[in-house]
Amino acid sequence: MSNEAATAQAAQAAEAAPAPEPLPHGLGASLPPADARAKTEGTFPYAADLWAEGLLWAAVLRSPHPHARIVSIDTTHAREMPGVRAVVTHEDVPGSPLHGRGTADRPFFASEVVRHHGEPIAAVAADHPDTARMAAAAVIVEYEVLDPVTDPEQAFEAEPLHPDGNLIRHIPLRHGDPEAAGEIVVEGLYRIGRQDPAPIGAEAGLAVPRPDGGVELYLASTDPHADRDTAAAAFGLEPERVKVVVTGVPGATADREDQGFQLPLGLLALRTGCPVKLAATREESFLGHAHRHPTLLRYRHHADAEGRLVKVEAQILLDAGAYADTSADALAAAVAFACGPYVVPNAFIEGWAVRTNNPPSGHVRGEGAMQVCAAYEAQMDKIAKKLGIDPAEVRLRNAMATGDVLPTGQTVTCPAPVAELLQAVRDFPLPPLPKDTPEEEWLLPGGPEGAGEPSAVRRGVGYGVGMVHMLGAEGADEVSTATVKVHDGVATVLCAAVETGQGFTTLARQIVQETLGIDEVHVAPVDTDQPPAGAGCRGRHTWVSGGAVERAAKMVRTQLLQPLAHKFGMSTELLQITDGKITSYDGVLSTTVTEALDGKELWATAQCRPHPTEPLNEAGQGDAFVGMAFCAIRAVVDVDIELGSVRVVELAVAQDVGRVLNPTQLAARIEAGVTQGLGIALTENLRTPRGLIRHPDLTGYALPTALDAPDIRIVRLVEERDVVAPFGAKAVSAVPVVASPAAIASAVRAATGRPVNRLPIRPQAAVVTERS
After folding, report:
1. How far apart, in whole angstroms, are the C-alpha atoms of residue 12 and residue 6?
2. For residues 131 and 136, what is the distance between their CA atoms, to the nearest angstrom?
3. pLDDT in tens, 79-113
4. Burial 138-148 (b: 16+ CB within 10 A, else e)
5. Membrane spanning segments where (predicted)?
6. CA–CA gap between residue 149 and residue 261 (Å, rounded)
7. Partners of residue 142 on adjacent β-strands
8. Residue 92: helix, strand or coil by DSSP?
9. Any bridge partners for residue 318, and if so which?
10. Residues near 647 by beta carbon (within 8 Å), at least 6 away in sequence
11. How much is the pTM?
């Protein structure tokens, strides 16, 4: 065959070949994460991978006691060890000695008293990590051991554990008629255990001193500007002399960094004049960062003969551990959502957060809302049982809708399709029953070789309906700033919103693609030289940071279209950008974005700030929340009533999402939240007898694995846009965490007839002594 003939044949084949599939583009498409390949290939730079010339290694000495008076600290032996470059204690903190996420009440290093197991006492920098650890162990601390206060109920009468006292916050919510009563009254006492965020990677970081006497901190921070300001205050420096550079965050379901971990790191770098690295062990990670609040809840529900709620009375006690952290915020959420997404005309809730000598509690996904959901859903099951009606039906009769009023007096103005969500999961077909055959024994509770007799297995179906608030609450100033630049046909987004796995960088790319019609969009690395964007929690970055990116992109769009509109004598509103092409409403104008740019560099900076909220008053009343999200889950479980083992067969999920911005990413976030809730329900319990963390590792702390994950069916996504939110979208990660533990507990109750009033569910709680 001649070259001409071969060329002609190849051209014909190319014309006959189907066109390649277009890449995902803009909002509503499943745009893959830009860092997905690096993470799967193991080349993504995490904090633990950092290195610098002349690097020193740090180690922290932590208290072995939950409560003790410090008599003396002797660092002589540690300082004299070969290779040790610095040892620091509370005496070496040049600035503010206290820090804290919500309340600055926590010392960087304990000075006179230790208040929890693992509290930092001293830190060491040495030329080898083993030397640093040995030197830390060589610091001699003489303690006078004190009796720890570990029962939060005893904290009210105990001697003050902190100069600020044992009571962090008390909220007495009063709503409606205190004399109201129902024909049906059910009561319950519930306990929620302590869960750890258990991030994929333990804390790590690098501190590098600067020539101006400042320091740069390379951290997996989720709120870099807050961390910078805290560090600067501790170091006695101006904020501009401390820079936080965000490195790869290996997953975050809470405030990712323990500030008591970061600050010794920077202090050692300033003291030695050398870069200092600290990579925490898993044990140190458990000892250092905040956990979910263990909670004690007492409830009394009043309902009429039809199962409609008349009054809810509750007492909620949060164990904050040794320091306040974000406990005041968690208590506000717990009290405000104590009745759940149900219409309750009369509510009287008492909420307290108290200090103890247990490990500190703080922000963990769904804080406050998760604990009360487990309790109020158990109460709804009791009402259904007492009246002999279907558990889903009693929930439907009380379901909240847009325009209803929370017990805080706030009107629900956002979409609240609670009844629609409930109906979707209730009507979804149930999974088939397991077969009693040897080859399918793995389907039984307990797994292979672990199940008892198939005849002892009972199936149960239960429901959980949860709600969370989005963004900060009670007057928090939620604001974010973003800059969008366009040059040579490439767009760059600068925003200090940290990518923690929630997908913000992907969303930012989609927003710019949608607004400007530019395919190649890069999101710049985050540091504190950029304007602040706030913490990465409660869906903040989808709302405020995504909103800031959208506003900046629209400003650039106007700059791009203005010359064309002026040339053709029309408004920019009459021009549209689609698939990289600019067209007018009448078809007169048609050009590409690249041609319109013509080598120009365009940029704009914008802010997004939601409408303000207000603190709850002395009666627990006020418009405290910007918006809310809802979720309904139906759980199907198999329980071996002789062994108490539980297998979650299926979780059917219906969720209020506002608008789907990235279908694949959204489904992954929901599935991850549901699976996290599975761990809360069945396995995750950080045990702290007498204030000591027992088994601070991933062997003793049982996380659910892929083998434990049930079938997760997303049966309905309600896309009713929230008009006050950018794009109309709602946060999706937290509310499945809130609802799934309650649904699983409800299903275990249905299977066993046992009350199941504690999470995680212990095997003895699912054992039925007399087989029916």
Report:
1. 10
2. 9
3. 999 999 999 999 999 999 998 888 889 999 999 99
4. bbebebeebeb
5. none
6. 25
7. 72
8. helix
9. 295, 353
10. 443, 444, 445, 446, 637, 638, 639, 710
11. 0.93
